[in-house]
Each structure stands twice: as C-alpha cells, then as structure tokens.
Amino acid sequence: MTVTRRALTGCALALGLSVAVSGVVTPAQAWEPKKPVEMIIMAGTGGGADQLARLIQGIIDQKKLSPRPFIPINKPGGSGAEALRYLQDKAGDDHTVLVTLNSYYTTPIINEGLGVDVTKFTPIGLMALDTFQLWVTSDSGINSLDDWVKAVKAADTWNVGGTGKGQEDSILFAMLQAEYNIKNITYIPFPGGGTVAKNLIGKHIASTVNNPSEQMAFYKAGQSRPLVQFTDERLAAFPDVPTAKELGHDIVYFMQRSFNAPPGMSKEAQEFYIGLFEKVFKSDEWQKFCTDEGLMCDNWVAGDDLAEFHKKQLARHEALIAKVGAKAITGE
C-alpha cells in the first residue's frame, strides 16, 4: 500500500480579525471547548484505538492543553458503523471528535445503507500509521511464515481472530488466503484488539494479526511470537522479524490512526483541535509510545492534507475489497 506522508503546510493557527459592535477591529477570541469533548472510539476497550485514545487523553490533561476534559467513549458496534453514524448525526457539533481505524473506510463501503460519507467529515490530524504482524503463541511450534502456511494447510480448520469483520484484520487474512491459496481459515470477530490478543493466549484461536500495542505485553512475557511484519521495512521494535516483502510476498498494510470530527464543524473549532493534536503528536510522550509500540509517527498531517490522504486510502480500500471480494472479509 502506498502511503502519503506529507507534512502539513500552513497548519498553524491563524487568528483572524473581527469587527466589534462598536466598529473597532480587535483580535478574534480563539475558540476553546465550552464543555467536555466526546472522544468517540470506533472499537472496544483494550484494543489499539482504545489504548491510543486513553494515552492521548492523559497527555492532554497532563499538559493542560484544553480548558475542558476529553471523555473517551467506546462505540464498537457494527465494525465501527455505530460510531460513524453517531458522528454523522452530530453534524455541526464542535465538541465531538472520532478516533479512527481503517474501518473508517471499509465499513461505509461494505454497508452501503449506513448513509455515511466520510469525505464530508471534518479532518483534524493523523497521529500514526499503525502496523500489523502475524502472531501465534510461543509454544505453538511455529517459528516462521513457511511453518505457519504448512500448519494451516495441514489442519482441517484453522481458527483466527480479529477486530470486527469486514475491516482491517479480516482484510489481511483475506490477503494471506489469496496469496497462499488457503481455503480452510475460519475468521472469528471480536469487539476489540485487546480481546483478540487474550483469545490467542488462551488458545481459543490459533493466529491473529494484532497491532504491536495489542500483543506487546504478552510478547514481552514470552507468551506470543510475531512471524512476519506487513511493513515496508523492519520496525525497531522487532529487528529480528522479517517483512513479508523480504520473504517475496508483496503484502504491505497499515492502519491509520487519525482524529476526525462531524460534518460542518466550525472552522475555529477545527483549528483548535488541529493545534491541540499537533502538540500531542510532537510531545515526547507520544513519540516514545510510537517507538516502543511499533507505530510510525514520522510526519504530522492535518486539515486539507489529511482529507487528501483519506481520499486516496478510501480508493485503495475500494480496490482491495474488489480484489478479495466483500464476502472474503465479512464471511457473509
């Protein structure tokens, strides 16, 4: 997948001028939240999006970046459909933001009756490109991608798990099935990546494509093993794990972690959130989290540049779904 990573140009807050009732031109009062801000998470608790949102909430509080608190609210229903519909229905609201996954693209494509056009949402900022690895338990006896393919093909049924259906995890497994002509994988959807990770360790499923942050605690405890990375290059967090490209398979896939807002948010509020999340993005706390947890946080992308990024990723996911078939990633 080709990923656009351009720095935002001209994204600094632009304080305009307003004309007072008296006719005297005075600096405009910068917009700030007047009540708590809803931070909607389109996935369940414990997953990558949930961890990210709660970390960012802590950074905002610690650095006193907002006069009103940000309140994380999980809305995982319908592979993100519940959250997307909620944001759509909040049109014009200045006190709601959405933490996104790639289901930001896939759910409206697959669920045409949802009535959501994400190109109409207000783009705020791209916080990271999250990554994927193929995971098994450390006592599985599987030590490489080749081992995994042989084990899967030798089994009657191979149960795998992921967040929701019709979104990023099921897309990746569909890509693996197509690449290796595998027919016997059964995909089991869970409400969030944290639950997926626990079910792997509990051996209720045999494989996952968890994001690093979702498996890191089990990995550090020696309970799980990454077999391959679906990135262009090896991540610093996993220097000994090969990429699929190194093994001769062009499977590269990222998860965008961005903030977006309802359609029709005021320009002043959008500028406030862009400025706030840029400060979070450049903070030592956020950059350390990215390095430690295997996320890519090289460039800040916001506003119109993020809208262009979304446009390209939406087209990319339309092509991916057309290639593997909607049924392959929804199981319906």
Outline the structure in words.
The protein has 332 residues and is α/β, with parallel strands linked by helices. The chain is 38% helix and 19% strand. It is built from 11 helices and 13 strands. It has helices at residues 48-62, 81-89, 103-110, 145-154, 168-180, 193-201, 212-220, 267-281, 284-293, 303-324, 326-330, and strands at 17-19, 25-27, 37-41, 70-74, 96-99, 122-130, 133-137, 158-163, 185-190, 207-208, 224-229, 255-261, 301-302. Strand 1 and strand 2 (25-27) form a beta hairpin. It is globular, with a radius of gyration of 21 Å. The two termini are 26 Å apart.
Number of strands: 13
The ordered H/E elements are EEEHEHEHEEHEHEHEHEEHHEHH
Q: What is the strand content?
A: 15-25%
Envelope shape: globular
Which sequence of strands runs across the widest sheet? Answer: 4-3-5-12-6-13
Termini gap: 26 Å
Cα-based radius of gyration, to the nearest Å: 21 Å
Q: By helix and strand content, what is the structural category? A: alpha/beta
Main sheet makeup? 6 strands, mixed
